[in-house]
Automatic annotation (TrEMBL):
Name this polypeptide is given: NAD-dependent epimerase/dehydratase family protein
NAD-dependent epimerase/dehydratase domain span: 6-262
UniProt record similarity statement: Belongs to the NAD(P)-dependent epimerase/dehydratase family.
Record-linked Pfam families: Epimerase
GO biological-process terms attached to the record: L-threonine catabolic process
Source organism per UniProt: Eiseniibacteriota bacterium
């Protein structure tokens, strides 16, 4: 018989690393990791098996399910918001067609198992499109259903995939005579900007936060690409990983939404600089806004409303701004660069 596994796509990304580390430390021994580039050695040891390949490759997917029964999918592979603007068509293929492929794997596996496969999907604050700065400043925390007219390819892709997931979970082939027992148990989170102390993000537009802190720890100068007064929500990586795992464990019947906002703290780029300079007094941080990347960040909300996540599945982040810096980011980043 095939071994039952949890498939993680985009396993080499920063969320993938955090997730695989936490799952394997919790005793999880059935992780199957997939990425375009070989999975790093330290990660490989934590997985049952690793595959190098493209989520668009249907043959690879077939190979995987011929060997393994997939009971849960964390579909993390994506081209982030800045990178996607350079190659929107490729972004569409990877972000949308790739997700469609994985949803089909999930559907097929659900039918083999007679039980819906859980499909965990990272969406983003990029699905929002605030019309102007004044609205962004005055709107307060944005709930899931408001201001969803994104300006980026990545935001459009994520919003559509949220809807695809909801369709596969609730409406798949709704006109069929016979009740279709196959379904996908789709669960998504709109993550704020994520900050990891151990990995650097690539290709995102919220990256100025993590880039600033990592540059200071390395002793490098950093020119921030947004204005000092720019505010978006952020979250420390351990809280993001824990939220994903918590949502995966939640009782299906308690979930009133397919996709939830979550947030920890909103701060301006200038607040970020103050925190970084307090920890690294020699940090050389300047502001050189890139007008077009600035416009993207300006279209993202300053705060999101995560009451549904708190109510339905008990979301409760551990790291507020002070703790994120003092207890997670600074000590871990100092360690990381001290041992190099
Ligand atoms: N961090 C992502 C990006 O900047 C947003 O989800 O693209």
């Amino acid at each position: 018989m095939r071994k039952s596994v949890v498939l993680v796509t985009g396993a080499n990304g920063e969320l993938g690393h955090g997730l695989i580390e936490t799952m394997s430390e919790g005793g999880h021994d059935s992780i199957l990791a997939l990425d375009l580039v070989p999975i790093e050695e330290g990660m490989r040891r934590r997985c049952r098996e690793t595959f190098v390949g493209d989520i668009l490759d249907r043959d690879l997917m077939e190979r995987i399910v011929s060997q393994y029964e997939v009971r849960e999918i964390y579909h993390l592979a994506a081209l982030l918001s800045t990178r996607a603007e350079f190659t929107p068509e490729t972004a569409h293929r990877v972000n949308v067609e790739g997700t469609m492929n994985l949803l089909q794997v999930a559907l097929e596996q659900s039918s083999w198992r007679g039980d819906p496969v859980k499909f965990l999907f990272p969406s983003s604050i990029a699905v929002y499109g605030m019309p102007d700065l004044e609205t962004k400043r005055t709107a307060g925390p944005i709930p899931e259903h408001k201001w969803t007219s994104p300006t980026t390819m990545y935001g459009c892709n994520k919003l559509y995939c949220e809807n695809l997931g909801r369709y596969f979970a609730r409406f798949y082939r709704q006109l069929a005579e016979a009740e279709d027992s196959r379904a996908v148990d789709f669960r998504g989170i709109r993550f704020p900007g994520l900050i990891s102390a151990t990995t650097m993000p690539t290709g995102g537009t919220s990256d100025y936060g993590p880039e600033m802190i990592h540059a200071a720890a390395r002793g490098d100068a950093y020119a921030c690409f947004v204005r000092p007064d720019t505010v978006i929500p952020f979250m420390a990586m351990p809280d993001a990983v824990e939220a994903f795992l918590q949502l995966a464990r939640a009782d299906r019947n308690a979930l009133s939404l397919c996709v939830y906002n979550i947030t920890s703290f909103s701060l301006s780029a200038d607040d970020f600089r103050t925190h970084v300079e307090r920890a690294f007094p020699d940090a050389k941080i300047s502001f050189q806004p890139h007008l077009k990347r600035q416009a993207i960040v300006d279209s993202w909300p300053a705060e999101v409303d995560d009451r549904a996540a708190r109510r339905d599945w008990g979301f409760d982040p551990k790291f507020d701004m002070e703790r994120a810096f003092d207890e997670y980011l600074l000590p871990t980043i100092r360690d990381r660069y001290a041992t190099r």
